[in-house]
What we know:
Layout: E1 4-7, H1 12-21, E2 25-27, H2 31-37, E3 43-44, E4 51-55, E5 61-67, H3 68-81, E6 86-93, E7 96-102, H4 105-116, H5 125-144, H6 151-164, E8 172-178, E9 184-196, E10 201-207, E11 214-215, E12 220-221, E13 227-233, E14 238-244, E15 250-258, E16 262-264, E17 267-280, E18 286-288, H7 290-298, H8 304-323
Parallel strand pairs: 1-2, 1-4, 2-3, 8-17
Antiparallel strand pairs: 4-5, 5-7, 6-7, 8-9, 9-10, 10-13, 11-12, 13-14, 14-15, 15-17, 16-17, 17-18
Helix pairs in contact: 1-4, 5-6, 7-8
Amino acid sequence: MNIRLKIRGIYATALTQLFLDKNFQITDPTGQIQERFGPDDAFQFDKPATVEIEDKDDWQGILLTGTLDSSQTVISMLQEELYDAICRKLRVRDNLIYYEVEFPFIAKSILDEIRNQVVPTIRHHHRMRIIASEYVDMVERLELSNHPEKREQIGRRLEQRFIWNVYRVGMPLAIEHVKLKGEVISLSHGEIREISPEDKHLILRRGDFSGIGDYDGLALSTEAGDYAMTDVWERGWMYSHNYYRADDTFIGACYNINTPVEYYPDKIRYIDLEIDVVERTGEPPETIDKQSLQHYYEQDFISQRLYETALEQAEKIVRTAEES
């Protein structure tokens, strides 16, 4: 396979292992990569890369630049192996194609496991690197390298320290709602009402819907004093908003289908998968915006597996709501 990759950034070790497993060639590896992998016939030092990879500025994924055929082959492989990865084609210029590839919860988790094949790696390594990069590096170097069997224990300890010990009842938490095209929408902050670290579960109260006009999909106008109770689970493919009037009258629910939520010290983050399930008072639940999800699938933003997963999750929510 005549594809040569030059890889830099926090995902370099995991991606190098992934690409070597798929018989791609790695060119101009860093000294650290050479040290971790040792002599390998797949490494090239005298040929230019056909694809170059570096971190996105926010470390939530990578920027990929390369020749048309090489880049598209790499993108297809990434979507196959990291099935919730979001691939955004930025532009084509001078026979080069530019992609932005987002790594949500599952992609990061898979890359954690791949990296652990090469060097001892804590659970949720790549997310924790975004939060506390130098500290994670130090702990893995000084502690985990001597006790690789403690990767789960040490990972939980760091997650507790940097996330769950930060959360407090009454604390405002940002909601980073990332669209498939890459637009980051900051929803109204949620005030933490309940915290369950063992279950990775939060209940948030959100208010101040002034300026929204109406609730998407519910065909209801907002009123002063409206609020929502929002349930968030780390591994869930959706999270729910239950909407109420100021007098606590329930007016409807919206189940947002998304990649599993990632927790950060000051926010939650996920990729919105376009479709939602809405439940209006006195009416059966309904899935909306399927055509939008299909559009992004047909444009190769998402893998077939992710597309099918989103549809299955919506159908599951509808069935559960109808049976309750």
